[in-house]
Amino acid sequence: MKRYGLYIDGAYVEAEGGRTFETANPYDGKAWALIAHATAGDVDRAVAAAKAARRGEWGTMTASARGKLMVRLAELIEENAASLAETEVRDNGKLLAEMSAQTRYLAEWYRYYGGLADKIEGTVIPTDKKSIFNFTRLEPLGVVAMITPWNSPLLLLAWKLAPALAAGNTAVIKPSEFTSASTLEFMDLFGKAGFPKGVVNTVTGFGADVGAALVAHKDIAKIAFTGSDLSGQKIYEAAARDLKHVSLELGGKSPNIVFEDADIEAAVMGAISGIFAASGQTCIAGSRLLLQRSIHDRFMKRLVEVAGAARIGDPMSPDTNVGPVTTPPQYRKVLDYIEVARNEGATCVLGGKPYTGPGANGTQFVEPTIFTDVRNDMRIAQEEVFGPVLAVIPFEDEEEAVQIANDVDFGLAAGVWTSDIGRSIRMAERLEVGTVWVNTYRAVSYTSPFGGYKRSGIGRESGIDAVREYLQLKSVWIATETSTSNPFVIR
Ligand code: NAI
Ligand code: MG
After folding, report:
1. Same domain, yes or no, for 156 and 275?
2. Same domain (yes/no): 237, 261
3. What CATH number does residue 397 fall under?
4. Cβ atoms 173, 161 nearer than 8 A
Protein backbone atom coordinates (compact mmCIF):
# COMPACT_ATOMS: atom_id res chain seq x y z
CA MET A 1 0.00 0.00 0.00
CA LYS A 2 1.11 3.54 -0.69
CA ARG A 3 2.40 5.34 2.42
CA TYR A 4 2.19 9.06 3.16
CA GLY A 5 4.34 10.86 5.73
CA LEU A 6 3.67 14.09 7.58
CA TYR A 7 5.12 17.23 5.98
CA ILE A 8 7.14 19.21 8.49
CA ASP A 9 9.82 21.84 7.90
CA GLY A 10 10.12 21.10 4.19
CA ALA A 11 10.36 17.31 4.38
CA TYR A 12 8.15 14.23 4.54
CA VAL A 13 8.65 12.46 7.85
CA GLU A 14 7.19 9.49 9.70
CA ALA A 15 5.01 10.17 12.71
CA GLU A 16 6.72 9.61 16.06
CA GLY A 17 6.67 5.90 16.77
CA GLY A 18 5.78 5.19 13.11
CA ARG A 19 2.01 5.24 13.71
CA THR A 20 -0.28 5.13 10.67
CA PHE A 21 -3.95 4.78 9.78
CA GLU A 22 -5.68 3.59 6.60
CA THR A 23 -7.51 5.70 4.06
CA ALA A 24 -10.13 4.09 1.83
CA ASN A 25 -11.41 4.53 -1.70
CA PRO A 26 -15.15 5.24 -1.39
CA TYR A 27 -15.87 3.59 -4.73
CA ASP A 28 -14.92 0.09 -3.57
CA GLY A 29 -14.62 0.70 0.15
CA LYS A 30 -11.08 -0.69 0.18
CA ALA A 31 -8.07 0.85 1.94
CA TRP A 32 -5.54 2.09 -0.62
CA ALA A 33 -2.96 4.02 1.43
CA LEU A 34 -1.47 4.42 4.87
CA ILE A 35 -1.36 7.91 6.35
CA ALA A 36 1.01 8.92 9.14
CA HIS A 37 -0.85 9.38 12.42
CA ALA A 38 0.72 12.39 14.15
CA THR A 39 1.28 12.60 17.89
CA ALA A 40 1.13 15.72 20.04
CA GLY A 41 4.92 15.81 19.68
CA ASP A 42 4.58 15.91 15.88
CA VAL A 43 2.11 18.78 16.19
CA ASP A 44 4.67 20.60 18.36
CA ARG A 45 7.38 20.10 15.75
CA ALA A 46 5.15 21.37 12.94
CA VAL A 47 4.09 24.47 14.87
CA ALA A 48 7.73 25.14 15.85
CA ALA A 49 8.80 24.91 12.18
CA ALA A 50 6.04 27.32 11.16
CA LYS A 51 6.99 29.72 13.94
CA ALA A 52 10.66 29.63 12.98
CA ALA A 53 9.80 30.23 9.30
CA ARG A 54 7.65 33.20 10.29
CA ARG A 55 10.58 34.74 12.16
CA GLY A 56 13.18 33.64 9.60
CA GLU A 57 13.44 33.89 5.84
CA TRP A 58 9.70 34.10 5.14
CA GLY A 59 9.20 36.87 7.67
CA THR A 60 11.98 39.02 6.26
CA MET A 61 11.24 38.44 2.58
CA THR A 62 9.68 41.33 0.65
CA ALA A 63 6.00 41.07 -0.06
CA SER A 64 6.76 41.06 -3.80
CA ALA A 65 9.07 38.06 -3.41
CA ARG A 66 6.35 36.29 -1.42
CA GLY A 67 3.85 37.01 -4.17
CA LYS A 68 6.19 35.67 -6.86
CA LEU A 69 6.54 32.37 -5.04
CA MET A 70 2.76 32.10 -4.90
CA VAL A 71 2.46 32.76 -8.64
CA ARG A 72 5.10 30.07 -9.27
CA LEU A 73 3.09 27.72 -7.05
CA ALA A 74 -0.01 28.45 -9.17
CA GLU A 75 1.87 27.33 -12.29
CA LEU A 76 2.98 24.13 -10.58
CA ILE A 77 -0.60 23.43 -9.50
CA GLU A 78 -1.72 23.68 -13.12
CA GLU A 79 1.07 21.32 -14.23
CA ASN A 80 0.09 18.80 -11.55
CA ALA A 81 -3.69 19.29 -11.65
CA ALA A 82 -4.44 15.96 -13.30
CA SER A 83 -2.54 13.83 -10.81
CA LEU A 84 -3.86 15.77 -7.80
CA ALA A 85 -7.38 15.27 -9.15
CA GLU A 86 -6.83 11.55 -9.56
CA THR A 87 -5.56 11.18 -6.01
CA GLU A 88 -8.58 13.06 -4.74
CA VAL A 89 -11.08 10.94 -6.66
CA ARG A 90 -9.42 7.79 -5.33
CA ASP A 91 -9.66 9.14 -1.79
CA ASN A 92 -13.00 10.99 -1.71
CA GLY A 93 -15.01 9.61 -4.61
CA LYS A 94 -15.88 12.94 -6.19
CA LEU A 95 -16.34 12.84 -9.97
CA LEU A 96 -13.09 13.09 -11.92
CA ALA A 97 -14.85 15.52 -14.26
CA GLU A 98 -15.54 17.92 -11.38
CA MET A 99 -12.25 17.30 -9.57
CA SER A 100 -10.11 17.96 -12.66
CA ALA A 101 -11.77 21.31 -13.21
CA GLN A 102 -11.44 22.10 -9.51
CA THR A 103 -7.72 21.33 -9.18
CA ARG A 104 -6.95 23.49 -12.22
CA TYR A 105 -9.14 26.30 -10.90
CA LEU A 106 -7.57 26.36 -7.45
CA ALA A 107 -4.37 27.73 -9.00
CA GLU A 108 -6.28 31.00 -9.46
CA TRP A 109 -6.51 31.53 -5.69
CA TYR A 110 -2.72 31.45 -5.36
CA ARG A 111 -2.29 33.69 -8.41
CA TYR A 112 -4.88 36.22 -7.24
CA TYR A 113 -3.56 36.48 -3.68
CA GLY A 114 0.04 36.27 -4.93
CA GLY A 115 -0.70 39.44 -6.88
CA LEU A 116 -2.25 40.99 -3.80
CA ALA A 117 0.73 40.28 -1.51
CA ASP A 118 2.53 43.56 -2.25
CA LYS A 119 -0.64 45.68 -2.33
CA ILE A 120 -1.48 45.33 1.35
CA GLU A 121 -1.09 48.92 2.44
CA GLY A 122 -1.41 50.78 5.72
CA THR A 123 -2.57 54.37 5.86
CA VAL A 124 -1.24 57.69 7.07
CA ILE A 125 -3.83 59.16 9.41
CA PRO A 126 -4.39 62.91 9.63
CA THR A 127 -4.69 63.02 13.42
CA ASP A 128 -6.13 65.82 15.52
CA LYS A 129 -2.82 65.99 17.46
CA LYS A 130 -0.20 68.55 16.58
CA SER A 131 3.36 67.34 16.01
CA ILE A 132 2.40 63.72 15.55
CA PHE A 133 2.90 61.50 12.55
CA ASN A 134 0.52 58.53 12.77
CA PHE A 135 0.49 55.59 10.39
CA THR A 136 -0.85 52.04 10.37
CA ARG A 137 0.75 48.76 9.44
CA LEU A 138 -1.08 45.59 8.45
CA GLU A 139 0.83 42.69 9.90
CA PRO A 140 0.41 38.92 9.71
CA LEU A 141 -1.09 37.11 12.70
CA GLY A 142 1.65 34.45 12.91
CA VAL A 143 1.08 30.72 12.63
CA VAL A 144 -2.38 29.80 11.33
CA ALA A 145 -3.93 26.35 11.85
CA MET A 146 -6.05 25.27 8.88
CA ILE A 147 -8.49 22.42 9.42
CA THR A 148 -10.26 21.12 6.33
CA PRO A 149 -13.04 18.62 5.57
CA TRP A 150 -13.22 15.78 3.05
CA ASN A 151 -15.51 17.14 0.37
CA SER A 152 -13.10 19.50 -1.46
CA PRO A 153 -9.81 19.36 0.46
CA LEU A 154 -7.51 21.33 -1.83
CA LEU A 155 -10.03 23.99 -2.82
CA LEU A 156 -11.12 24.68 0.75
CA LEU A 157 -7.45 24.80 1.74
CA ALA A 158 -6.70 27.34 -1.03
CA TRP A 159 -9.45 29.60 0.33
CA LYS A 160 -7.48 29.78 3.59
CA LEU A 161 -3.87 29.32 2.61
CA ALA A 162 -3.69 31.75 -0.31
CA PRO A 163 -4.80 34.86 1.62
CA ALA A 164 -2.86 33.73 4.71
CA LEU A 165 0.41 33.42 2.76
CA ALA A 166 -0.18 36.71 0.92
CA ALA A 167 -0.50 38.34 4.33
CA GLY A 168 2.82 36.80 5.45
CA ASN A 169 1.58 34.10 7.83
CA THR A 170 2.83 30.53 8.00
CA ALA A 171 0.59 27.49 8.32
CA VAL A 172 0.04 24.11 9.90
CA ILE A 173 -2.65 22.18 8.04
CA LYS A 174 -4.79 19.31 9.36
CA PRO A 175 -6.76 17.72 6.52
CA SER A 176 -9.66 15.36 7.14
CA GLU A 177 -8.73 11.85 8.26
CA PHE A 178 -10.77 10.56 5.29
CA THR A 179 -8.89 12.53 2.63
CA SER A 180 -5.35 13.42 3.68
CA ALA A 181 -3.49 12.22 0.58
CA SER A 182 -4.07 15.15 -1.80
CA THR A 183 -2.91 17.75 0.73
CA LEU A 184 0.23 15.72 1.46
CA GLU A 185 1.01 15.44 -2.27
CA PHE A 186 0.35 19.16 -2.69
CA MET A 187 3.01 20.00 -0.07
CA ASP A 188 5.71 18.83 -2.46
CA LEU A 189 4.92 21.73 -4.80
CA PHE A 190 5.92 24.27 -2.15
CA GLY A 191 9.46 22.90 -2.11
CA LYS A 192 9.54 22.89 -5.92
CA ALA A 193 8.29 26.49 -6.08
CA GLY A 194 11.12 27.57 -3.76
CA PHE A 195 9.19 28.39 -0.59
CA PRO A 196 11.43 28.47 2.50
CA LYS A 197 11.14 25.43 4.74
CA GLY A 198 8.46 25.52 7.41
CA VAL A 199 6.12 28.01 5.71
CA VAL A 200 3.56 25.25 5.21
CA ASN A 201 3.36 22.04 7.23
CA THR A 202 0.79 19.26 7.29
CA VAL A 203 -0.01 16.99 10.22
CA THR A 204 -2.46 14.15 9.70
CA GLY A 205 -4.71 12.30 12.09
CA PHE A 206 -8.16 12.60 13.62
CA GLY A 207 -10.09 15.61 14.81
CA ALA A 208 -10.24 14.59 18.44
CA ASP A 209 -6.47 14.07 18.76
CA VAL A 210 -4.41 15.90 16.13
CA GLY A 211 -7.04 18.57 15.37
CA ALA A 212 -7.66 19.30 19.03
CA ALA A 213 -3.91 19.41 19.84
CA LEU A 214 -3.37 21.90 17.04
CA VAL A 215 -6.28 24.10 18.12
CA ALA A 216 -5.02 24.11 21.72
CA HIS A 217 -1.39 24.86 20.84
CA LYS A 218 -0.17 28.06 22.47
CA ASP A 219 1.74 29.23 19.38
CA ILE A 220 -1.26 29.11 17.06
CA ALA A 221 -2.61 32.61 16.41
CA LYS A 222 -5.66 31.72 14.38
CA ILE A 223 -7.75 28.74 13.35
CA ALA A 224 -9.37 28.67 9.92
CA PHE A 225 -11.90 25.83 9.77
CA THR A 226 -14.39 24.33 7.34
CA GLY A 227 -16.62 21.48 8.47
CA SER A 228 -19.66 20.67 10.57
CA ASP A 229 -21.29 23.24 12.82
CA LEU A 230 -20.74 21.04 15.89
CA SER A 231 -16.99 20.68 15.30
CA GLY A 232 -16.84 24.40 14.50
CA GLN A 233 -18.53 25.17 17.79
CA LYS A 234 -16.03 23.01 19.72
CA ILE A 235 -13.13 24.70 18.00
CA TYR A 236 -14.56 28.14 18.72
CA GLU A 237 -14.91 27.24 22.41
CA ALA A 238 -11.36 25.89 22.58
CA ALA A 239 -10.00 28.95 20.76
CA ALA A 240 -11.72 31.23 23.26
CA ARG A 241 -9.53 29.91 26.07
CA ASP A 242 -6.47 31.57 24.52
CA LEU A 243 -8.37 34.31 22.68
CA LYS A 244 -7.28 32.98 19.31
CA HIS A 245 -8.70 34.37 16.08
CA VAL A 246 -11.09 32.09 14.20
CA SER A 247 -12.87 31.89 10.91
CA LEU A 248 -15.47 29.17 10.50
CA GLU A 249 -17.34 27.90 7.45
CA LEU A 250 -20.00 25.51 8.69
CA GLY A 251 -22.41 24.31 6.06
CA GLY A 252 -26.05 25.10 5.55
CA LYS A 253 -29.60 24.22 4.65
CA SER A 254 -29.78 26.44 1.62
CA PRO A 255 -33.09 27.16 -0.12
CA ASN A 256 -33.39 27.02 -3.89
CA ILE A 257 -36.51 29.14 -4.49
CA VAL A 258 -38.42 28.82 -7.75
CA PHE A 259 -41.13 31.33 -8.66
CA GLU A 260 -43.82 30.71 -11.26
CA ASP A 261 -42.25 33.29 -13.59
CA ALA A 262 -38.92 31.42 -13.75
CA ASP A 263 -37.40 29.68 -16.77
CA ILE A 264 -38.54 26.25 -15.59
CA GLU A 265 -36.02 24.16 -17.54
CA ALA A 266 -33.10 26.26 -16.24
CA ALA A 267 -34.48 26.07 -12.69
CA VAL A 268 -34.81 22.27 -12.90
CA MET A 269 -31.14 22.04 -13.89
CA GLY A 270 -30.26 24.47 -11.09
CA ALA A 271 -32.15 22.37 -8.55
CA ILE A 272 -30.33 19.23 -9.72
CA SER A 273 -26.93 20.89 -9.64
CA GLY A 274 -27.74 22.24 -6.19
CA ILE A 275 -28.41 18.87 -4.58
CA PHE A 276 -27.18 15.96 -6.71
CA ALA A 277 -23.81 17.32 -7.87
CA ALA A 278 -21.05 15.90 -5.67
CA SER A 279 -23.74 13.57 -4.27
CA GLY A 280 -25.03 16.49 -2.25
CA GLN A 281 -21.84 16.63 -0.23
CA THR A 282 -21.26 20.36 -0.46
CA CYS A 283 -21.74 23.05 2.13
CA ILE A 284 -23.73 25.05 -0.44
CA ALA A 285 -26.09 22.20 -1.33
CA GLY A 286 -29.51 23.56 -2.26
CA SER A 287 -31.11 20.99 0.01
CA ARG A 288 -34.47 22.73 0.36
CA LEU A 289 -36.37 23.29 -2.89
CA LEU A 290 -39.03 25.94 -2.35
CA LEU A 291 -41.61 25.72 -5.15
CA GLN A 292 -44.42 28.16 -5.83
CA ARG A 293 -47.63 26.11 -5.66
CA SER A 294 -48.85 27.12 -9.12
CA ILE A 295 -45.91 25.33 -10.78
CA HIS A 296 -45.34 22.60 -8.18
CA ASP A 297 -46.65 19.57 -10.08
CA ARG A 298 -45.29 20.58 -13.48
CA PHE A 299 -41.86 21.27 -11.97
CA MET A 300 -41.77 18.04 -10.00
CA LYS A 301 -42.61 15.95 -13.06
CA ARG A 302 -39.62 17.32 -14.97
CA LEU A 303 -37.31 17.25 -11.91
CA VAL A 304 -38.00 13.58 -11.20
CA GLU A 305 -37.54 12.78 -14.89
CA VAL A 306 -34.08 14.41 -15.07
CA ALA A 307 -32.86 13.32 -11.62
CA GLY A 308 -34.14 9.79 -12.22
CA ALA A 309 -31.99 9.55 -15.36
CA ALA A 310 -28.74 10.40 -13.54
CA ARG A 311 -26.02 7.79 -14.17
CA ILE A 312 -24.68 6.44 -10.91
CA GLY A 313 -21.30 4.74 -10.72
CA ASP A 314 -17.53 4.97 -10.96
CA PRO A 315 -16.41 8.54 -10.23
CA MET A 316 -13.37 8.06 -12.50
CA SER A 317 -15.63 7.45 -15.52
CA PRO A 318 -16.49 10.54 -17.60
CA ASP A 319 -20.13 9.39 -18.03
CA THR A 320 -20.92 9.23 -14.34
CA ASN A 321 -23.24 11.90 -12.87
CA VAL A 322 -23.47 10.72 -9.27
CA GLY A 323 -20.68 8.99 -7.37
CA PRO A 324 -20.51 7.30 -3.98
CA VAL A 325 -20.94 8.94 -0.59
CA THR A 326 -17.43 9.68 0.68
CA THR A 327 -17.30 8.06 4.11
CA PRO A 328 -19.02 5.12 5.85
CA PRO A 329 -20.37 7.31 8.69
CA GLN A 330 -21.68 9.81 6.13
CA TYR A 331 -23.39 6.98 4.21
CA ARG A 332 -25.15 5.83 7.39
CA LYS A 333 -26.07 9.42 8.23
CA VAL A 334 -27.71 9.95 4.82
CA LEU A 335 -29.74 6.73 5.12
CA ASP A 336 -30.74 7.68 8.67
CA TYR A 337 -32.07 11.02 7.44
CA ILE A 338 -34.08 9.28 4.71
CA GLU A 339 -35.68 7.24 7.50
CA VAL A 340 -36.27 10.38 9.56
CA ALA A 341 -38.01 12.07 6.61
CA ARG A 342 -40.30 9.06 6.10
CA ASN A 343 -41.18 8.93 9.77
CA GLU A 344 -41.96 12.64 9.72
CA GLY A 345 -44.54 12.01 7.01
CA ALA A 346 -42.72 13.34 3.95
CA THR A 347 -43.46 11.58 0.64
CA CYS A 348 -40.57 9.95 -1.17
CA VAL A 349 -41.03 10.52 -4.92
CA LEU A 350 -37.59 9.39 -6.06
CA GLY A 351 -34.89 7.08 -4.70
CA GLY A 352 -34.93 6.64 -0.95
CA LYS A 353 -32.57 3.70 -0.61
CA PRO A 354 -29.04 2.44 -1.21
CA TYR A 355 -28.17 2.14 -4.88
CA THR A 356 -27.12 -1.37 -5.88
CA GLY A 357 -27.63 -1.28 -9.66
CA PRO A 358 -25.03 -1.29 -12.42
CA GLY A 359 -21.89 0.66 -11.60
CA ALA A 360 -22.33 0.29 -7.85
CA ASN A 361 -19.09 -1.36 -7.01
CA GLY A 362 -19.02 -1.04 -3.25
CA THR A 363 -21.57 -0.28 -0.60
CA GLN A 364 -21.57 3.51 -0.33
CA PHE A 365 -24.06 4.54 -2.99
CA VAL A 366 -27.35 6.27 -2.21
CA GLU A 367 -29.97 6.86 -4.90
CA PRO A 368 -30.74 10.50 -5.69
CA THR A 369 -33.66 11.02 -3.34
CA ILE A 370 -36.50 13.54 -3.38
CA PHE A 371 -39.13 14.14 -0.69
CA THR A 372 -42.27 16.20 -1.28
CA ASP A 373 -44.89 17.29 1.27
CA VAL A 374 -42.11 18.56 3.49
CA ARG A 375 -42.93 21.13 6.15
CA ASN A 376 -40.17 23.52 7.08
CA ASP A 377 -40.29 22.50 10.75
CA MET A 378 -39.38 18.88 9.95
CA ARG A 379 -35.84 17.73 10.73
CA ILE A 380 -35.31 16.95 7.04
CA ALA A 381 -35.85 20.68 6.36
CA GLN A 382 -33.81 21.99 9.29
CA GLU A 383 -30.71 19.78 9.59
CA GLU A 384 -27.80 19.38 7.20
CA VAL A 385 -27.90 15.92 5.59
CA PHE A 386 -24.86 16.43 3.35
CA GLY A 387 -26.05 13.87 0.83
CA PRO A 388 -28.24 13.48 -2.28
CA VAL A 389 -31.52 14.13 -0.46
CA LEU A 390 -33.80 16.97 -1.51
CA ALA A 391 -36.68 18.34 0.59
CA VAL A 392 -39.40 20.03 -1.48
CA ILE A 393 -41.52 22.67 0.26
CA PRO A 394 -44.38 24.51 -1.47
CA PHE A 395 -45.09 28.22 -0.95
CA GLU A 396 -47.89 30.59 -1.95
CA ASP A 397 -46.21 33.95 -2.55
CA GLU A 398 -43.02 35.94 -2.14
CA GLU A 399 -43.76 36.76 1.47
CA GLU A 400 -44.13 33.11 2.42
CA ALA A 401 -41.04 32.14 0.41
CA VAL A 402 -38.91 34.60 2.39
CA GLN A 403 -40.38 33.45 5.69
CA ILE A 404 -39.69 29.75 4.97
CA ALA A 405 -36.24 30.45 3.50
CA ASN A 406 -35.08 32.35 6.58
CA ASP A 407 -36.66 30.04 9.14
CA VAL A 408 -33.55 27.86 9.72
CA ASP A 409 -30.48 28.19 11.92
CA PHE A 410 -28.15 28.22 8.91
CA GLY A 411 -27.53 31.05 6.44
CA LEU A 412 -24.93 30.06 3.90
CA ALA A 413 -26.54 30.53 0.48
CA ALA A 414 -29.79 30.73 -1.47
CA GLY A 415 -30.90 30.40 -5.08
CA VAL A 416 -33.70 32.49 -6.56
CA TRP A 417 -35.28 31.60 -9.89
CA THR A 418 -37.39 34.38 -11.42
CA SER A 419 -37.64 36.52 -14.55
CA ASP A 420 -38.73 39.56 -12.52
CA ILE A 421 -35.72 41.77 -11.90
CA GLY A 422 -37.41 43.70 -9.11
CA ARG A 423 -38.25 40.47 -7.32
CA SER A 424 -34.66 39.25 -7.65
CA ILE A 425 -33.40 42.39 -5.91
CA ARG A 426 -36.08 42.26 -3.21
CA MET A 427 -35.24 38.63 -2.52
CA ALA A 428 -31.49 39.30 -2.45
CA GLU A 429 -32.11 41.94 0.21
CA ARG A 430 -34.39 39.85 2.37
CA LEU A 431 -32.62 36.49 2.42
CA GLU A 432 -30.46 36.00 5.54
CA VAL A 433 -27.55 34.30 3.79
CA GLY A 434 -23.97 35.09 2.77
CA THR A 435 -24.47 34.30 -0.94
CA VAL A 436 -27.50 34.77 -3.18
CA TRP A 437 -27.56 33.29 -6.68
CA VAL A 438 -30.22 34.51 -9.08
CA ASN A 439 -31.00 32.20 -12.01
CA THR A 440 -27.84 30.22 -11.31
CA TYR A 441 -26.51 28.04 -8.51
CA ARG A 442 -23.22 26.79 -7.09
CA ALA A 443 -21.02 29.51 -8.62
CA VAL A 444 -17.90 30.48 -6.65
CA SER A 445 -14.80 32.49 -7.55
CA TYR A 446 -11.57 33.68 -6.01
CA THR A 447 -12.79 37.22 -6.69
CA SER A 448 -15.98 37.09 -4.63
CA PRO A 449 -16.47 36.88 -0.85
CA PHE A 450 -17.97 33.65 0.49
CA GLY A 451 -19.18 32.81 3.97
CA GLY A 452 -22.11 32.33 6.24
CA TYR A 453 -24.74 34.26 8.14
CA LYS A 454 -26.12 32.81 11.38
CA ARG A 455 -24.96 29.26 12.18
CA SER A 456 -23.19 28.91 8.85
CA GLY A 457 -20.09 30.60 10.12
CA ILE A 458 -17.89 33.54 10.91
CA GLY A 459 -15.63 35.40 8.51
CA ARG A 460 -15.34 35.47 4.73
CA GLU A 461 -13.13 33.58 2.29
CA SER A 462 -12.13 34.70 -1.24
CA GLY A 463 -12.29 38.21 -2.64
CA ILE A 464 -10.03 41.10 -1.79
CA ASP A 465 -11.22 41.58 1.80
CA ALA A 466 -10.49 37.98 2.84
CA VAL A 467 -6.84 38.88 3.25
CA ARG A 468 -7.93 40.99 6.25
CA GLU A 469 -8.90 37.79 8.05
CA TYR A 470 -5.18 37.00 8.25
CA LEU A 471 -3.90 40.46 9.22
CA GLN A 472 -3.78 42.57 12.34
CA LEU A 473 -3.63 46.33 12.43
CA LYS A 474 -0.94 48.29 14.23
CA SER A 475 -1.02 52.04 14.82
CA VAL A 476 2.37 53.81 15.04
CA TRP A 477 2.73 57.26 16.62
CA ILE A 478 5.85 59.35 16.02
CA ALA A 479 6.36 62.74 17.64
CA THR A 480 7.70 65.24 15.13
CA GLU A 481 8.72 67.63 17.94
CA THR A 482 9.76 66.77 21.47
CA SER A 483 7.43 67.87 24.19
CA THR A 484 7.84 68.52 27.89
CA SER A 485 4.18 69.23 28.61
CA ASN A 486 2.59 67.92 31.84
CA PRO A 487 3.48 64.15 31.88
CA PHE A 488 0.60 63.33 34.28
CA VAL A 489 -2.20 63.93 31.76
CA ILE A 490 -3.10 62.06 28.58
CA ARG A 491 -1.45 63.30 25.37
P1 NAI B 1 -16.01 17.48 10.92
O2 NAI B 1 -16.46 18.88 11.04
O3 NAI B 1 -16.05 16.66 12.14
O4 NAI B 1 -14.51 17.44 10.35
C5 NAI B 1 -13.91 18.48 9.62
C6 NAI B 1 -12.45 18.59 10.02
O7 NAI B 1 -12.35 18.98 11.38
C8 NAI B 1 -11.65 17.28 9.93
O9 NAI B 1 -10.33 17.57 9.52
C10 NAI B 1 -11.67 16.78 11.36
O11 NAI B 1 -10.60 15.94 11.64
C12 NAI B 1 -11.56 18.08 12.12
N13 NAI B 1 -12.09 18.07 13.49
C14 NAI B 1 -13.20 17.44 13.95
N15 NAI B 1 -13.38 17.69 15.26
C16 NAI B 1 -12.38 18.51 15.65
C17 NAI B 1 -11.99 19.11 16.89
N18 NAI B 1 -12.72 18.93 18.00
N19 NAI B 1 -10.89 19.86 16.93
C20 NAI B 1 -10.16 20.07 15.82
N21 NAI B 1 -10.45 19.52 14.64
C22 NAI B 1 -11.54 18.75 14.53
O23 NAI B 1 -16.82 16.82 9.74
P24 NAI B 1 -17.07 15.28 9.43
O25 NAI B 1 -17.22 14.46 10.67
O26 NAI B 1 -16.06 14.82 8.48
O27 NAI B 1 -18.48 15.37 8.73
C28 NAI B 1 -19.62 15.47 9.55
C29 NAI B 1 -20.62 16.43 8.98
O30 NAI B 1 -20.06 17.71 8.80
C31 NAI B 1 -21.15 16.08 7.62
O32 NAI B 1 -22.15 15.13 7.70
C33 NAI B 1 -21.64 17.41 7.12
O34 NAI B 1 -22.94 17.65 7.60
C35 NAI B 1 -20.68 18.39 7.74
N36 NAI B 1 -19.63 18.84 6.83
C37 NAI B 1 -19.68 20.10 6.34
C38 NAI B 1 -18.72 20.53 5.45
C39 NAI B 1 -18.73 21.88 4.88
O40 NAI B 1 -18.21 22.08 3.78
N41 NAI B 1 -19.24 22.87 5.56
C42 NAI B 1 -17.66 19.64 4.99
C43 NAI B 1 -17.68 18.34 5.59
C44 NAI B 1 -18.64 17.97 6.47
MG1 MG C 1 -10.42 8.18 1.72
Report:
1. no
2. no
3. 3.40.309.10
4. yes
Return the residue whose CA atom lies nearest to atom 44 of ligand 1: 227
pLDDT tens profile 449-480? 999 999 999 999 999 999 999 999 999 999 99
Q: What is the pLDDT of residue 15?
A: 98
Tell me: the pLDDT tens digits for 111-141? 999 999 999 999 999 999 989 999 999 999 9
CA 356, CA 481: separation in Å to the nearest integer?
Answer: 81
Predicted confidence (pLDDT) per residue in 260-275, tens digit: 999 999 999 999 999 9
Same domain for 154 and 270, yes or no, is: no
pLDDT at residue 491 greater than cutoff 80: no
Position 446 in a domain = no
User: Are residues 46 and 193 part of one domain?
Assistant: yes
Residue of minimum CA distance from atom 26 in ligand 1? 149
How many domains are contained in the chain?
2
> Residue 31 sits in which domain range?
2-250+456-475
pTM, entire model: 0.97
Domain assignment present for 490: no
8 A C-beta contact, residue 235 and residue 457:
no
183 CB under 6 A from ligand 1?
Answer: no
Mean pLDDT of 50-54: 98
- Last residue in a domain, options 392, 411, 438: 438
Residue 443 counted as domain residue: no
Q: Work out the mean pLDDT of the chain and round it to a whole number.
A: 97
Which pLDDT score is estimated for 205?
A: 98
Q: How far is CA 23 from CA 96, 253, 325, 327, 370, in A?
A: 18, 29, 15, 10, 31
Last residue of a domain, one of 411, 438, 465: 438
Helix axes 63-92, 181-193, angle to 10 degrees: 150
| 337 lies in the same domain as 240 | no
Residue 72 near residue 194 (C-beta atoms within 8 A): yes
Residue 208 has pLDDT above 80, yes or no: yes
Please tell me the predicted confidence (pLDDT) of residue 483. 81
Assess whether 260 and 245 both reside in one domain. no
Q: Residue 235 belongs to a domain with what CATH number? A: 3.40.605.10
Residues 417 and 350 in one domain: yes
Q: Does residue 227 line the site of ligand 1, with CB under 6 A?
A: yes
In a domain, 483, yes or no: no
**Amino acid found at 291:** L
Among 231, 338, 409, residue to substitute to test ligand 1 (most atoms within 8 Å of Cβ) = 231
Active site residue 283: yes
**CA 32 distance to own-chain centroid:** 25
Best substitution site from 91, 179, 228 to test ligand 1's pocket, by max atoms within 8 Å of Cβ? Answer: 228
**Strand 132-140, strand 471-479: pairing:** antiparallel
Decide if 288 contacts 393 (C-beta within 8 A). Answer: yes
Q: pLDDT confidence of 482, banded at 50, 70, 90?
A: confident
The answer on 414 and 367 residing in a single domain is yes
Query: What is the bridge-based pairing of β-strands 369-372 and 347-350?
Result: antiparallel
Contact, 421 vs 394, CB < 8 A?
no
